């Protein structure tokens, strides 16, 4: 479920007609397309029709540096196919001045292990690399700050790629949020020796946590404390929820907890145990939970089974029904067995399913059982 949240956080805002902020002030917008740009894109096998449809304004800008961008990427080891793909999804790259691009390459190489990895990052996150030159100083300062925390270079690279906004803003804003996370970890009893690893894991799992107001984290932890979670349990929750604890708010959590307790008919203590086993439950609104409870119950699964394995609520009803049918085909009845076999990603489920199938095809041999022999 947290993977899905991580994916949803990466969705872009709807496009607007205004030009992006990173367009250079010196660029001019013409009513006619820049034919030099169009020809250069065609020569690079870029889907120009796609560019016209999605970001046609780029073709009207002058000057543009299409050939220079391609040469730089080629010098870094990018193939023609990769260059074409990058320029099709992020044609704004051709508006970056060659000196700016070289500065970006040198900056990224301070944290990226090699050019091959950097090309892979540019292919996946072109907008993170082709940024405005006005952000360069902030990027440098933020890299220096995260290096001062002794964070792994791989983590810093991931942060720059997936949450570039946190590097384009003043370093002081990131310092405040990191201090808030560190203080919360220490106040909840986290060990100083493990704090760097804990922080690295949290930032890598949700890079967007840096962009949230520090007050959100404090408010959510105070709400959960008021609900009876101990200091040690809050640390467990903070670690399990990773950085996504900042995506919550007290009002939504309150409604979710009230609905869950009423539906399961459990005590507050039991509900806390369920949340500790399945922290993702805090994210779901009542409508989604109602659908999932109904789907599980209609499949013959009891409420006590759900309470014993609450992580099954992370799965959609469609996934649950599909997996139940797969298991039923091999003689496994979830109504009488454990729901653990339903859990996990598609890959994890297939592994569990394979083990069940193997166990069914190869019954255990009992070495003390008498052998049956013909008279």
TrEMBL record:
InterPro entries: MTERF, MTERF_sf. The keyword Signal applies. Keywords: Signal, Transit peptide. GO terms for biological process: termination of mitochondrial transcription. GO terms for cellular component: mitochondrial matrix. Pfam families: mTERF. The keyword S-adenosyl-L-methionine does not apply. Gene3D superfamilies: Transcription termination factor 3, mitochondrial (1.25.70.10). One of its GO terms (molecular function) is nucleic acid binding. Residues 1-18 form the signal peptide. Belongs to the mTERF family. This is Mitochondrial transcription termination factor 2. It comes from Seriola lalandi dorsalis.
